[in-house]
Amino acid sequence: MIEMQDVYKKYPNGVTAINGINIKIEKGEFVYIVGPSGAGKSTFIKMMYREEKATSGTIIVNDINLSKLKSSKVPLLRRNIGVVFQDFKLLPTLTVYENIAFALEVIEEHPDVIEDRVMNVLELVGLKHKAKMLPTELSGGEEQRISIARSIVNSPKVVIADEPTGNLDPETSWGIMNILEEINANGTTILMATHNKEIVNTIRHRVIAIEGGKIVRDDERGDYGYED
User: Fold this and answer.
1) What is the distance between the alpha carbons of residues 50 and 74, in angstroms, rounded to a whole number?
2) Residue 175's beta-bridge partner residues?
3) Which of 55, 82, 110, 197 is 20 to 30 A from residue 32's alpha carbon, by CA?
4) CATH value at residue 209
5) Is residue 228, in this structure, part of any structural domain at all?
6) Which pLDDT belongs to residue 73?
7) d(CA 183, CA 124)
8) Is residue 97 part of a domain?
9) pLDDT of residue 76
10) Which GO terms describe its biological process (predicted)?
11) What DSSP letter does each residue of 63-74 carry, written as one string?
12) What is the pTM of this model?
């Protein structure tokens, strides 16, 4: 599903964020990406949906070689990748329903299909009753659940979650994890960058640790391994 071969990312200011990464992630895996702040986790995540482009090396996601992908084809790549952000990135002037439907309207999906899919994902995250509300009327946990619903409405093969519980209280964080677990159980590959030690140590999955832009640990059912 995801493969990196000798990947480097050097920014114009001279900082090398990713320093020779080789990794393979299979279909249906749930993988935690951990490491100290500034280790390169965010760059690692962003390269997978071409928010950042590798300086050198090969990145393959869902059989698409991102190293050779033209900028005009990036939206096509992202139709098969769901992204969940720490700060939600919901459009404040659109309702919950409209925020989720937007991803389908962009690809000119039929209105009946849009309605079915949006209501189905809202039911999955338990917020069907808030479809007509604006993001400002929701709690942080509800906003994150809507962000997840939006990320999966296209039935992506991969969901990339960048600190999805970072701004949430512990109880809400467990609720978010339950949703991600259910999505994964249905066959979707999930990559989750996180600093949440308790979640990683409780809900065991593969753990990839990044330090100084390099993979320093790759454990099939690992623990968090850091004090922060």
Assistant:
1) 7
2) none
3) 55
4) 3.40.50.300
5) no
6) 87
7) 9
8) yes
9) 82
10) cell division
11) TEEGGG--GGGH
12) 0.91
Q: What is each CA distance from 64 to 58, 68, 191, in whole angstroms? A: 10, 9, 17
Q: CA-CA distance, 133 to 75, in Å (whole number)?
A: 28
Q: Are 88 and 109 in contact (CB under 8 A)?
A: no
Cα–Cα distances (Å) from 193 to 55, 57, 144, in that order, read 22, 22, 15
Over the stretch 50-95, which tens digit does the pLDDT of each residue have? Answer: 999 999 999 999 899 998 899 888 888 888 899 998 888 899 999 9
The range of the structural domain enclosing residue 192 comes to 29-54+71-219
Rounded CA-CA distance 207/103 in Å is: 30
- Domain assignment present for 127: yes
Q: Which two tokens stand for residue 70?
A: 């033209």
The tally of domains found in the chain comes to 1
Q: Is 185:177 a contact under the CB 8 Å cutoff?
A: no
What are the structure tokens assigned to 92, written together? 């404040």
Q: Give the pLDDT confidence of 116-133 residue by residue, as tens digits.
A: 999 999 999 999 999 999
Dist CA 78 CA 60 (whole Å):
13
Q: Tokens 């964020």 label which residue?
A: 17
Please list the residues that pair with 83 across neighbouring strands. 160
**Band of pLDDT at residue 192, cut at 50, 70 and 90:** very high
For 184, other C-beta atoms within 10 Å of its C-beta total 17
